[in-house]
Amino acid sequence: MRSPVGGIFRHVLDLAAEQSANGHLVGIVLDSSTGGAFEADKIAAATRHLALGVTRLPIARRVRPADMLAAWRVYKAVRDLEPDVLHGHGAKGGALARIVGTILARRGRPVARFYTPHGGSLHFPKTSHSGRFYFAVERMLERFCDGLIHVSCYEAMAYREKVGKPRCGASVVVNGLRREEFEEVVPAADARDIVYMGMMRDLKGPDVLIRAVAAIRDRTGRAPTVAMIGDGPDLASYRRLVEDLGLSQAVAFHAPMPTRRGMAHGHLMVVPSRAESMPYIVLESIAAALPLVATSVGGIPEVVGAAPSRLVPPGEIEAMADAIERALSDPVRTRTRALLARATLRERFTVEAMADATERLYAAALGQSVRGAKTAGVPSLQPAE
Length: 385
Known about the structure:
The chain is of the alpha/beta class. It is built from 14 helices and 13 strands. The chain folds into two domains: 205 residues, Glycogen Phosphorylase B (Rossmann fold, 3-Layer(aba) Sandwich); 166 residues, Rossmann fold (3-Layer(aba) Sandwich). A six-stranded parallel beta sheet has the order 9-8-7-10-11-12, sandwiched between helices. The protein is globular and about 70 Å long.
């Protein structure tokens, strides 16, 4: 993978930990130029149970000539680990894993090559110049891939629509949660009305939330209080937006922190994303019985299923303000809905099921069988068609 932040980072750490617990030798290769102290602590903790360790190398986000040097560095690092499987996460990680795996195979080391987009390049519009470029690259890289593993049906459909019908195997394996994450989170005594946790970038919609809070203030004369937790490239612009809208007393910014500790900062989780694949924060909030307002993007409707929830169109400030107002105005009803939503989630999204399903795909690509593989509770491997 490239950057050790956000849901993709969480996914990789969970998958690696579960695979290690199942007796496999696992390592992670990731970028060295992104992430802060919070991510460094996570990586240090992960290193203790990864037999092949953690290798950090500079890997740029955008496509540029330096990618050739990055690919060479990744190749040297991975070659020495002698892997049976290379699983790339995100667009850049996926490209490197498939290219390096193919080079290893041609030099006599058979390697199964897998790719999980996590949204990535699929977030680009189909008609944009950047989108057409990245989709063409994705199409080309299918030649070097043994299997696509999507984290949501939405992502699988987006891949088909933008890249084309996969020419390699394609399955859906949803994200999973640990058992302890289904324990209820109780808001702190000084918790704010709303909590946002995630990347501070426009794709995730923090600006929509801020403007929705201003709209509520203009309607009612009082702005809901907000805890905004996270870091990212657009953080400075959100701070300016809060000041420009006169919300400095209502909105407080916090550095990244463990999810469950962050959840206790608010009575209502708001996920205002403009695009997603299968966001962990939605899963985590529902599992913790924390009331949720989210946008109807990506795999979020798949997580919600038939459970009561409030999904609003992405980017629509007034609709977001309406949903927040409804949730805050009737806390008893909102709380009841949160408990019902948790009950529907418990059996569907577990880290054990995620790892077991992924392992079976690895084994199939290697022409092996998984002895004693669990079947109960494993999500169906739906074809990308």
